[in-house]
Amino acid sequence: MKAHHKPLKAYPKISIICVILLLAAFVLLLLVGLSLPIIHPVYIIQVFAPSTNQPATSSASELRFGVWGVCAYSQLNPPSVLHDDGLCYGPKLGYANVIPTSLLSEIGLTQTEVDGVLEGLLGVLILHIIAAGFSFVSLFTSLFLASHGMTIFSLVLTIITALLSTIVFVVDAVIVGVAKSHIPTLTGNGLAVNVGNAVWLVLGALIASWLGIIFLSARACYCCGVRRKRYIDDGDEYSNDNSDSNND
Q: Which of UniProt's keywords are assigned here (predicted)?
């Protein structure tokens, strides 16, 4: 097997760093892509009724929106407790006709208000999974940096991952911001909104992806201290153009 066909044969430090960064991006994006109601602890938006001195009831006082649906919680059935599937609605892409009207009335919302606040979210929900897919492929191609062509291919995939992650983060953040400003007004401050942990997970994936681009770009353009490597023959051995340097 030629040297440039073997993983980690050249530029191993850059390869390992890129694999770690892109693996982190993949895991974070996958967690968000499989968020509530598939993975209960991960959600995009939390809509809740501020605590009062009223006795605890089983009526829904909190909604959490994930990529694939919505889960409702009450004071007697809080998020920290294992829940029956009946409290979650989904998995389904989009929120239209997912939340029962009775539940929305119980928490003080209408379907029109929910649709207005979450308008546009459906268009980027699937991007969470697509971005995770690109990061998954790019973490494997980053193992073969001995090949300049594979390096460019990995760089392109990582750029796509970073751009998709940026789009997802911006849209998620904007929608949470709109919800935070509109829902309290629509409900007379009867409900409040918090940003979900999924938004911060996407931010982490975004940062990891852009860092990966920096390292891959350094390898692709032989800059930032990265030396060009020259293969002696079709075997496994190779050498730097500057033979006195062992830098990656």
A: Membrane, Transmembrane, Transmembrane helix
* CB neighbours of residue 129 within 10 Å: 14
Give the integer Cα–Cα distance in Å for 3 and 16.
17
182, 188 contact by CB (below 8 A)? no
| Number of Cα atoms under 13 Å in the Cβ half of residue 30 | 10
Look at residue 231 and give its three-state secondary structure. Answer: strand
DSSP class of residue 240 equals E
- Averaged pLDDT, 65-86: 67
Q: How far apart are CA 134 and CA 26, in angstroms?
A: 8
Sketch out the chain's domains with CATH numbers. Answer: 3-227 (1.20.140.150)
- How does residue 248 score in pLDDT terms, banded at 50, 70 and 90? very low
Task: Point out which residues pair with 12 in neighbouring strands.
Answer: none
What's the whole-model pTM score? Answer: 0.80
